[in-house]
Structures are given as C-alpha cells and as structure tokens.
Amino acid sequence: MDKDKIASYGNTLYDCLRNRKTIAPITEQESDVTIENAYHISLQLLQRRLDDGEKIIGKKIGVTSKAVQNMLNVHQPDFGYLTDRMVYDNGAEMPISSELIQPKAEGEIAFILKHDLAGPGVTNAEVLRATECVMPCFEIVDSRIRDWKIKIQDTIADNASCGLFLLGDRAVNPRNVDLVTCGMVHEKNGEIIATGAGAAASGSPVNCVAWLANTLGAFGIKLQAGEVILSGSLVPLHGIVPGDSMNLSIGGIGKASVRFT
C-alpha cells in the first residue's frame, strides 16, 4: 500500500472519530492490506489527533484474552496509543453518546510506569521493577469499523479500537498482589455480568506489558516513565448505552465505577 493511500485511510478514520461515523472494513476495501500497513495507518490517525492538541499519555494492549479474541474473531494482540482526551477519573460520568459510536466496556489492570522500558529482551521482572503502581481500570473500546466486523488489520489501523478509559480508586504496589490469580468481579446496573482473573490476560497482565515493550522495542519505541499502560481485559466485552452504570472490583487492587451518559 502506498503512502498516499495509507494517509487517506488514516485521515478517514480521524474524520470518523470526530464525526461519530463508521466505514466498511479496510480489509474488505484492500484485500492485500498488511499488519505493517495497518500500523502506519494508525500512526496517521494518531498524528491527526496530536495536531488537534491531544497528548500521548500511554499505550494499550488489546485482544489479549481468549474471550475477547473469540468475540471479535481476532486471535493475536495489538496495541494503540492513549491520549489525555481519553482519560476519566473514578466515579465519573462518561459521555459516550457524544464521544463514541458503538462502545463496549471491559475491565483491566492499568500499569503506571516509573522507569522506561525499552525492548527487545524485556523480562517480567523488569516490568515489575519499572512499575510504580497498578490500578483497576475500565477501558471503553469503540470501533470506527462498521458493525465491529474487524480483522486484525482493521483494529490495528483504528488505534486498536481505542475509545475512552477510567482509572479506579486505588494505586497499589504490583509486588503486593498476585497479578495472575487476583480476581475481578464486573457488574452492570447492579448485577454481576462477568468474573475473571489476571491469568485471563495472556497468562498474566505482566506478560502483556513485556510483550508490548518488546514489540515496540523492535521499532525503536519505548514505554516511558509516567505512562499508563492498559494491560488487556480480564473479562468479556459488554455493550453499553447511555444510562448504564458499571462497577468492578479486583482482589488486592481496588474498585472502579462509571456511569455512561
């Protein structure tokens, strides 16, 4: 795919983001689009957001759990960029009706870094040493691809289907919690809709952060001190509409709550 076409798709996705529109899957429009092409499209989308005044505050890892992989029929992880326009505080009202198109919510563990991580060769032990704290988190994913009919190239191009995210009520030392066995309870409108554990995210959310550091390291990109890293969902995705509320709790870490407007 040539540079002009890559730029065109990135600009189209930016227009969809700002105007709450969708497009047909890129993989249907371009049968030969590669994962590398998709990441270049995502960088064009990101650049448009930065030109609009947003600032990068972190990165997200997507499609890490089997439940989400099976739901989306995408069977490998991807990553996207987080900006300051995406983040909300615990208990906030999140304006999905004016910001998103076809949102779905998932519960995650967020890592806040105190040191840079530069792959390749980053180990789980190095991830833990570089982490200031972990926090409970809601990620609200969204897709500019019509009806969520995505392949891996589609979600990568669309900044890993990033929407918004919310950080919970506590920040804890990652060495003080078992990030593999810690359990999550996810509630919607007062009813439990899912349970999960840290192991749902590729065996451990630490594995996910190491994967991201090593994947980006191959392109000369590092995870930076101060960044928020969303490590992947521990429960299946759930559709949301304005008026819904959600709560989650993660054993040993804390809780998060959000109301959608």
Query: Main β-sheet: number of strands, strand sense, barrel status?
Result: 8 strands, mixed
The helix fraction, in percent, is 25-40%
- Total number of helices: 8
Mind telling me the C-alpha Rg? Answer: 17 Å
Q: Can you identify the CATH superfamily?
A: Fumarylacetoacetase-like, C-terminal domain
User: Strand percentage, roughly?
Assistant: 25-35%
What does this protein look like?
Strand 8 and strand 9 form a beta hairpin. The chain has 261 residues and is of the alpha+beta class. It has a single domain (55-260), classed as Alpha-Beta Complex (Fumarylacetoacetate hydrolase, domain 2), CATH 3.90.850. The chain has eight helices and 13 strands. The relative contact order is 0.22. The model has no long low-confidence stretch (mean pLDDT 93). Helix 1 packs across helix 3 and helix 6 packs across helix 8. 29% of the residues lie in helices and 29% in strands. The chain has helices at 3-19, 26-29, 35-51, 66-72, 96-99, 124-130, 152-157, 205-217; strands at 56-62, 78-83, 87-88, 93-94, 104-113, 131-141, 164-167, 183-188, 191-197, 228-233, 238-239, 245-250, 254-260. The protein is globular.
